[in-house]
Structure formats: structure tokens, C-alpha cells
TrEMBL record:
SUPFAM superfamilies assigned: Nudix (SSF55811)
Organism from which the protein derives: Candidatus Blackburnbacteria bacterium RIFCSPHIGHO2_02_FULL_44_20
InterPro entries cross-referenced by the UniProt entry: NUDIX_hydrolase-like_dom_sf, NUDIX_hydrolase_dom
Domain Nudix hydrolase: 13-168
Name of the protein in question: Nudix hydrolase domain-containing protein
Highest taxon listed in the record's lineage: Bacteria
Length: 182
């Protein structure tokens, strides 16, 4: 089988990003973006990042021609790298598209997940306490009501509200993205 060419013309090129609304004890993790970020500097958001071909091309395929589960694997890695946490019970929340200030189109896949309590392990990696990488300068665990007081990237508050509804048992079919009135 011939491997696909990863180059595309610009009209088909998108960044694909993934984010995690992480729940722990009735609160959700938000982080403040670095002032050096191209998109939304100094604004509050949730952990996540871009999916790159390098996230999967060097791993074995699940079928002869494709990789399955790589979005979730990348999300776990991004959360681990950005905030030093492990997550579990990952569920799809909503998708969103945008054009960055530099004109690059972005597809964002948002998920919600539970904080995974650390297990005693023989590895040197320790999850459990938030430790930020260079992409963020601050963090907070907030309730949906508290989140509304932060300067969040547009849509993040609504996603936290959606995740909170699901966590409380509201059915997926009855929860929709509802933009705030500013």
C-alpha cells in the first residue's frame, strides 16, 4: 500500500486541536494562556493542544491502513504535558471551528474527562498536582459559577456548563451549546 502524502493545498489545510474539560470534586480546571501565545494570549482556557501527524505516524496502526484512538491518546499526552495530570472517562463534548488571527483555520474537538487519582507507581512520573508547562502562567479549579468571572476564551464557559450538565446525568441529546449573551 502506498502511504498518503501529508502535503495538501492550503484550502484543505486545518489545524486540529483537542481540549479537555477536566472535572475533580465538583470543580473544573482552567489555565491562563501565556502572553506569548499567538491566539488568545493571557486568556483563560482548558488544557489541550494540536494533533500533529507525528502523534501517530510512528506508532503501529490498528488496522492495515489506519490508526484508531489517536485523538484520545493525544489528548491524554497533551494534558500530561500541559498540567501534569492523568485523566479518565473521556467523553466527546462538542466541536468548534475558527480562524486564528494569522488566518489558519482550526477545528477544535472538545472532550470532558475526570481527573484520575494517582496510583502508587514505580515510575518517575507523578500525576496528581497541577504543574504548568510554558504554555500557561496560572491555573484554577473552579465551579461553573466561578468560571464565569474569569476572562475565558469565548465558548469555554459554555463548554464547562455543558460538561457539568453531563456529569450530573443530563442526557446528551438534551444538552446543546448555548452561547452566553454578552
Amino acid at each position: 500500500m502506498v502511504e498518503p502524502n501529508l502535503k495538501h493545498d492550503d484550502s484543505h489545510l486545518h489545524y486540529i486541536a483537542i481540549t479537555a474539560i477536566i472535572h475533580k470534586d465538583g470543580r473544573y480546571l482552567i489555565t491562563k494562556r501565556s502572553p506569548n501565545e499567538k491566539a488568545f494570549p493571557n486568556m483563560w482556557t482548558v488544557p489541550g493542544g494540536r494533533i500533529d501527524a507525528k502523534d501517530y505516524v510512528d506508532t503501529p496502526k490498528n488496522t492495515p491502513s489506519a490508526w484508531y484512538g489517536e485523538v484520545e491518546n493525544t489528548l491524554r499526552r497533551e494534558v500530561r504535558e500541559e498540567v501534569n495530570l492523568e485523566i479518565e472517562n473521556i467523553k466527546y463534548l462538542v466541536d468548534m471551528t475558527l480562524l486564528r488571527p494569522d488566518g489558519i483555520p482550526v477545528v477544535v474537538l472538545s472532550y470532558y474527562a475526570d481527573y484520575k487519582t494517582p496510583e502508587v507507581s514505580s515510575t518517575s512520573y507523578k500525576s496528581g498536582e497541577v504543574k504548568l508547562d510554558d504554555d500557561a502562567t496560572e491555573f484554577a479549579w473552579v465551579t461553573p459559577e466561578e468560571a464565569e468571572k474569569y476572562e475565558l476564551i469565548e465558548g469555554i464557559y459554555e463548554e464547562i456548563v455543558m460538561a457539568d450538565k453531563f456529569r450530573r446525568g443530563v442526557s446528551f441529546s438534551s444538552v446543546k451549546f448555548e452561547p452566553r449573551k454578552y
